[in-house]
# Entry
Amino acid sequence: MFETNRAQSRSRGALEMLELIYHSIVRDIRKEHRHAVVGLLMNIMQTMVFALAFYFMFSVLGLKGTAIRGDFMLYIMTGIFLFMTHIKSMGAVLRSEGPTSAMMKHAPMNTIVTITASALSALYIQVLSMAVVLYLYHAIMTPITIYDPIGAMGMVILAWFSGCAVGIVFLGLKPWLPGFVTIASSIYSRANMIASGKMFVANTLPSSVLALFDWNPLFHAIDQARGFTFINYNPLFTSVSYPLMISMILVLIGLMLEFYARRNASASHDAAR
# Structure
């Protein structure tokens, strides 16, 4: 009531929306830790611990022979990077501000802005962590060569997009089934420790075992990423189109659920049961 409504062009509205998303991204990154650099270092350490844990596990169990011919640590990191990008993006979208959040009381804010900001902040942190870990390994341990870095980066983006798609579906269900969403998202994250296929390659699996994993978009993204990373590996049983189509369908379903929840949600949905 204390400001005049000004007609604005579509380009000005788009720029204001981008500015709002930028500030939401900064807020979302700093929300994890008071100091953004410390939060980034913690994520880098988590990635390095994951990679070292799988390296020692493969060494102790004598599974190095099942890996792709090439740098063994790079083989592990291709799986770890995409797995963490997928799971972190899903969790970030799931934790984004809902329609009953206090932030929604500010006029420019809406759930699309918060979902986009959460997704992009997760991508920013994971890509930066991945770049730092790869540089440290390349500079300190041994030089590495990625056969097709653009294609490999594309698979990282695909893993992020598919994780966001799953997160949007969970977010749309969260106001109505909060307990189920908490359990289902946790089960999904734990199941992908195996179902993502980061510990083996699709070309070495028999058809009976392959059928247990090829439903998973992340399994396809990781296997294709290894095809772009290693010159002597050609994925035969996975594709890029499958995870892309599944992710687009999940985004469509998730946005419909989120739109319905936004129109019908109330503050009592967040009350304790």
In short: The chain is about 70% helix and 0% strand. The two ends are 38 Å apart (CA to CA). The CA atoms of residues 78 and 226 lie 7 Å apart. The chain has a mean pLDDT of 83.
